[in-house]
Design a protein that fits this description.
With about 325 residues, the chain is α/β, with parallel strands linked by helices. It is built from 9 helices and 10 strands. The strands form 3 sheets. It has a 5-stranded parallel β-sheet, with helices on both faces. Strands 7-6-8 form a 3-stranded antiparallel β-sheet, with no helix packed on it. A two-stranded antiparallel sheet has the order 3-4. α2 runs parallel beside α4 and α4 packs parallel to α5. The longest helix is centred in the middle third of the chain and has 21 residues.
């Protein structure tokens, strides 16, 4: 063995294809969310775009709970684009009408998805935050606005824990029986410096540990530890040497579904991932008999899957 295997206790209550997921947070929540989507699970992925710090994630959930829609006063205009300090740049557009449409369509969808989801998968990326000097409000994304517009500070463990304790209690009151799985992103924020990055990640870990102690429906998945220790080699990193490689993401996803899903669900995941790969196939020669036969084979597979698993009818 040329690795230090991370021991992960199997979840007591297994998840399956009836489970509805909602992912929020850093790039890793996108990674796992897309893995779930590619395996045809019911999942909502980052409706505000990538969110890095715990309080921005919390604020986005509160917006959904309050059913708040955005108006022109919630936007800013910079370098020919309208944007929102509560959203990533993915929602920005050249007109305020398009930006508001991008934002509010996704919010309306996410409100319902949050209400009915069974599992919230939340990934913390950093304890560092930026606050607007004009309003004092914490922003989700600085959108490359001048640094003089913001004050940068680091969240405390207490601040994260108390904010989330209040949120979780509110969620339990409004929409009970939700499971919350926290992860810490394995992606290093190197611009903070090695030591500051480690301090930041430590704050996130300690805050999650305290939340686990307070709430029975809160658990932790060690994606960070798998990347740092089990996959302790630069071949498991992308070319920037900070983000996990596709191989690493695949492995962390495999450990995730081994931890949380039943044996039957894991078998179906593998079957459906193979089917998804066929759907993405792009032929060199689309006008050939071989490709027509391939399409017919995919069509038959789809029909067979729906007959065997009727819940897939609106997913594949």
């Amino acid at each position: 063995m040329f690795t230090t295997k991370i021991n992960i206790e199997n979840a007591n209550e297994k998840l399956d294809y009836e489970t509805r997921f909602f992912t929020l947070g850093s790039c890793f929540s996108d990674n796992i969310g897309n893995k779930l989507k590619n395996a045809f699970f019911d999942v909502e992925i980052n409706p505000f775009g990538v969110l890095f710090n715990p309080i921005s994630i919390l604020k986005s959930i509160e917006i959904l709970l309050e059913k708040k829609l955005f108006v022109e006063q919630d936007l800013f205009f910079h370098t020919s684009l309208w944007g929102s300090l509560s959203h990533s740049t993915l929602f920005s557009a050249s007109t305020k009408e398009k930006t508001l449409s991008n934002i509010n369509q996704r919010i309306e969808q996410a409100i319902e998805r949050l209400k009915y989801c069974d599992v919230l998968l939340i990934t913390f990326g950093t304890a560092w935050v930026y606050e607007s000097n004009k309003t004092g409000e914490l922003v989700t994304n600085c959108h490359k606005l001048p640094s003089s517009f913001f004050t940068r500070r680091r969240l405390s463990i207490f601040e994260i824990v108390e904010s989330y304790a209040s949120l979780i209690q509110n969620l339990d009151t409004l929409y009970p029986n939700k499971r919350i799985i926290f992860t810490v992103s394995p992606i290093r924020h190197w611009k903070d410096g090695a030591h500051e990055n480690n301090l930041s990640k430590s704050i996130l870990h300690l805050a999650i540990e305290e939340l686990q102690k307070r709430f029975e429906n809160v658990s932790y998945y060690p994606a960070f530890e798998i990347q740092m220790d089990e996959l302790r080699d630069y071949r498991y990193y992308a070319t920037d040497m900070f983000h996990p490689s596709d191989v690493a993401i695949d492995y962390i996803w495999m450990r995730f579904h081994e931890t949380y899903f039943s044996t039957q669900s894991v078998q179906l995941i593998k079957k459906l991932e193979n089917f998804a790969a066929q759907l993405t196939h792009r032929p060199m020669h689309a006008d050939t008999k071989e490709y027509a036969d391939f399409l017919e084979s995919v069509k038959k597979q789809r029909i067979k899957l729906i007959l065997e698993y009727p819940f897939l009818s609106d997913r594949i």
